[in-house]
Amino acid sequence: MRTRTLVALLTSVIGGLAVVGGGAFGARAGIRGQRAASQRVVDMLPVHADWWRERLQHEGQLTYLAIGDSAAQGVGATAPGRGYVGLLARRIRHRSRMSVRVVNLSVSGSTTWGAKQDQLPKLRNYTPDVCTVSIGANDIADFHPDKFERNIRAIYGAVPSHAIVAELPCMFVPDRERKVAVANEIVHRVAGEFGLTVAPLHVITKRVGLRRTFFNSYGDLFHPNDRGYEIWASAFEPAVDARVDTVAAIRHYLSAREAEDLGSEAGAVASARAEQDTEHAEELEHGERPGRVERLRQRMTGAIPLPVRSGEHEREHDHNDDDDDNDEREHDQPHANKHLQAQGAPAPDTDESGTGHDRPHAPAHRAEPDGQHGGVGGAA
User: Fold this and answer.
1) Three-class HEC string of the chain
2) Do residues 182 and 215 touch, judged by C-beta distance below 8 A?
3) Among 25, 110, 153, 288, which residue's beta carbon has the most beta carbons within 10 A?
4) Strands of the sheet with 100-104, listed across from one edge
5) pLDDT digits over 101-133, tens only?
């Protein structure tokens, strides 16, 4: 018994040590992998920055401007264009059917203070049709609510009134989530003061859940990967679509001078004109159709017009022309007969077509009473 007990104890101890050793080995391997991924992120930074800087030289009918940090640069994606800014640019191009120039002013590692100092001065050189702002995640490590609000207020006051600003994403760590909640309260309050649209990034990333967020993250467990950036882009898409439709209405219903004079009111004026056009088109469409009462009256009175094919319409038209010619000949025939009788010649009989050839006298037709026809279908 003692031997069995000793063997069982030794087995338990060895198994426990193996689990602990395996866990420690896995943890060390995970730490090494995370450090390697972080180093790859560092190597990505200049590559992504150069890629977006090159895009500044491209011309486009629409201008999309982005303010942000490494997430706006697309760090963690397989290519810079697979970040949320690149995905939104592609969506704008497809929805508007216009070429798009992307002005990505974001800087990797930027905080709200860095965006205020470095990115806002460059913003003055552009007049974007679409503008997105996603900044503040790097502030959470050393978070000061007062400083954060001052910087956010400066940024939101400088961007166009149609800009779309994003919440901070969900970080799932309790201590950080408490700070994120305070930051997002500031984002919503200041955005409401300036009349800006807020993209619900925190709501959407939290709904995804911790497990999916883990698999949608890059190896450094901070930046999203391709799937993660698709989720980020979905937070902006409804507001971006609405803005693109407004820009299209402005281009269609306002001249460049009108749009410049109206300023922030241009979108509302263009949308009102678009609604008027839609209502006018509906009125014309319904005006060509008889109303419900009119259709009922037509059914009761039998006055519903039957569709006539093109060949039948032409034959009917030719038949009406022949009838008109016959009426004219019949009207002129008595005068011709009187002229012949005056010269002593008998008046010739005419057939029904009014050709004037002699023919035997036909028996006189019986006169029909008024309002009655001689046969089925009304033929005399």
Assistant:
1) CHHHHHHHHHHHHHHHHHHHHHHHHHHHHHHHHHHHHHHHHHHHHHHHHHHHHHHCCCCCCEEEEEEECHHHHCCCCCCHHHCHHHHHHHHHHHHHCCCEEEEECCCCCCCHHHHHHHHHHHHCCCCCCEEEEECCHHHHHHCCHHHHHHHHHHHHHHCCCCCEEECCCCCCCHHHHHHHHHHHHHHHHHHHHHCCEEECHHHHHHHHCHHHHHHCECCCCCCECHHHHHHHHHHHHHHHHHHHHHHHHHHHHCCHHHHHHHHHHHHHHHHHHHHHHHHHHHHHHHHCCCCHHHHHHHHHHCCCCCCCCHHHHHHHHHHHHHHHHHHHHHHHHHHHHHHHHHCCCCCCCCCCCCCCCCCCCCCCCCCCCCCCCCCHHHCC
2) no
3) 110
4) 100-104, 62-68, 130-134, 164-166, 197-199
5) 999 999 999 999 999 999 999 999 999 999 999
